[in-house]
Design brief:
Strand order of the largest sheet: 3-2-1-4-5-6-11
Radius of gyration: 19 Å
CATH topology of the largest domain: Rossmann fold
Number of strands: 13
């Protein structure tokens, strides 16, 4: 494609560009010589200064343009696509988190479902045919069958967040079928690393342990997550972007789940201090375990996660201490 060599005015539109994953994706795209239009509304879910810091490495880059706007604003989205003659869209913007969706299901539907539909319709109107959609491991719900495969049914979500992500996948398939769009949906498994959202478990636990405060542990600590380092996720996303044809669906995870108790033990090792635990009831909507079957991504995308959790936590702590971390509060998330 013309835009991928940096020629002409074609750009990749990245929604949610100032977020944790979005800022890393934008940096990778620009680093590979692509031109990027980043869209973000700087939602107040956490402090604007966090997102501004996420963008520090992109400020002033010739290949990057930031647009402050909302994916629900059809005129804004269409305007970007028309002006940039976009090479395609990487759609990361969303209201994230299981617990937040239980508290505000209408808000999550408005952004995650309607926002995705507005984007797809803007793509149809402007003739943009290529989309990478960030879904979530949450769509698998609570299931005993492990690991989670793309062939599994995902008809029984257990949180509004999961339901909105499944709805997004269905809308993507509809627009592929009706209008010939090339769409790849990526089910991401608990992404962590530098710039991780401050409400997520690893970021929050490091902040609390460094401050000598208790960690809120929901349930008995047996909850397990397939933690996946940000660099591995971005590698997988770039491969999926290059191979985006037809309608495809991939898991991107490490395929090595850790129990919450084991995560805390690793953090104690890396930080060199003991964790104080505050036991709390398990919240509604959370699943007990996630575990990615990544064979399809390995075979078709050459996906190969390399950073295991112990090393990833060491990298995160180095970043946290260098930036002095410690932003807004939150909790365990899927």
């Amino acid at each position: 494609m013309e835009g991928e060599g940096g020629r002409g005015r074609m750009r990749v539109l990245v929604t949610g560009a100032a977020g944790f994953i979005g800022s890393h994706v934008c940096e990778r795209l620009v680093g590979e010589g692509l031109r990027v239009a980043g869209l973000d509304n700087f939602d107040a879910f956490y402090g604007r200064e966090v997102k501004e810091a996420n963008l520090a490495g992109l400020r002033g880059k010739e290949g990057f343009r930031l647009v402050e706007g909302d994916i629900r604003d059809r005129a804004c989205v269409e305007g970007i696509l028309r002006e940039e003659a976009s090479a395609g869209v990487i759609h990361l913007a969303a209201k994230a988190g299981v617990r937040g969706s239980v508290a505000d299901p209408l808000g999550y539907e408005e952004v995650n479902v309607r926002g995705t539909l507005v984007l797809l319709e803007a793509m149809r109107q402007t003739g943009v045919k290529r989309l990478l959609f960030a879904s979530s491991s949450s769509v698998y719900g609570s299931r005993r069958k492990l690991p989670f495969s793309e062939r599994d049914s995902v008809d029984n979500p257990v949180s509004p967040y999961a339901a909105t992500k499944k709805a997004g996948e269905l809308l993507c398939h509809t627009y592929h079928y009706l209008y010939g769009m090339d769409v790849t949906c990526l089910r991401l498994f608990t992404v962590y690393g530098p710039r991780q959202r401050p409400d997520l478990a690893i970021h929050k636990f490091v902040r609390l342990m460094e401050a000598g405060q208790a960690l809120p542990v929901y349930g008995d600590g047996s909850m397990a997550r397939d933690f996946t380092y940000i660099d591995d996720i971005v590698d997988g996303m770039m491969s999926a972007w290059r191979e985006c044809r037809g309608y495809q669906l991939y898991n991107l995870g490490e395929s090595r789940p850790y129990r919450l108790t084991n995560l805390i033990a690793e953090l104690e090792r890396v930080l060199g201090r003991r964790a104080e635990i505050e036991r709390l009831p398990a919240p509604p909507g959370e699943v007990r375990q996630t575990f990615a079957d990544i064979r399809r991504a390995v075979t078709k995308l050459g996906y190969s996660p390399r950073v295991r959790l112990p090393e990833g936590l060491e990298r995160f702590v180095v970043w946290y201490r260098q930036t002095e971390g410690g932003r807004s509060a939150g909790g365990w998330a899927g």
